[in-house]
Amino acid sequence: MLADTSVAEPVMLDVDPLVQLFLSISLAFIMFAVATGLKPGDFKFVRENPLSVMVGFFAQIIALPLATLALVKTLSISPALALGMIIVSCCPGGSMSNLITKIAGGDTAYSVSLTMLSSIFSAAFLPFSILFWVGMHAPSDTLIEQVNIDRAGFIVRTCLILVIPLIIGLSLASKKPNLATKLHRRSMPASLAILIILIISGLITNYGVLIAYGAVMVPLVILHNSAAFLVGALFGYTFIKDRKKSRALVFEVGIQNAGLGLIIVLAELGGYGEAVILVGMWGIWHLIGGFILANTFRFIDWRKKQLSV
After folding, report:
1. Cα 307 off chain centre by
2. Alpha-carbon distance 188 to 37, whole Å?
3. How far does the chain reach from its first CA to its final CA, in angstroms?
4. What would the mean pLDDT of 110-123 be, rounded to a whole number?
5. Which residue in 139, 115, 120, 134 sits closest to 264, CA to CA?
6. Are 74 and 238 in contact (CB under 8 A)?
7. pLDDT over 90, % of the chain
8. Global model pTM greater than 0.90
9. Is the pLDDT of residue 49 over 80?
10. Which domains does the chain have, with CATH numbers?
């Protein structure tokens, strides 16, 4: 049973305007890095596999936030922790899901296509999605109201920061694929480094919050991430008969781009310490959980092969 933190006073971070500017630039750079890696073949896969793509898209964009909402309403946690969980659930799939899917023996092309679709969707609708699902949980919605967030400004700024670099990256990938490939190879490691630095700095900056709430946050992050993997598994193995695609969907829903969520919490949504720590922990744990699950799948495949000999 998780400890009751529903009445705890939220810890606020004072984020310097220059830091906010850096975070916004980082967000734009990450989206550009993702866009330059998209290829015409990714869109072709979508056209050729409409049903499985629709199932995966629904699982990630609708089912995961809905499951998260049910989870935060069931558990006795603070509004700031619930805010962090909802933001993570609204983020697009993380690019590491493609690698982990490959390790697990899943359909990598399917995984890449879903990552692409969720990233494009998020570029235009992420702020709307966050505000919608947060609005479904009154305590977290009230939390945003308390810091007088300009909701219209949040929508406009976030969409511009995400859409413009996405369009530039897609344009390069279409018109100058060789240049886009070179830029992607250089920008992805840089964007990954940015996310790692942000996560580590967020945990260090909020060390006091980590100590105070760590006993609650660690099991909460593991529980939430497990629920995300479960959502992917339920949709994959129920609606998609292809084993490799079903396995890929497990990781596509369970591996979220928590780095984007972390930037949004810090730059736009009040900088609540608990939310920052939770999203940062998600960014670490989902990779650990993903690799554990991927290797479990590999072991199952190996065991079946041994028994069939």
Report:
1. 37
2. 9
3. 45
4. 88
5. 134
6. no
7. 33
8. no
9. yes
10. 17-302 (1.20.1530.20)
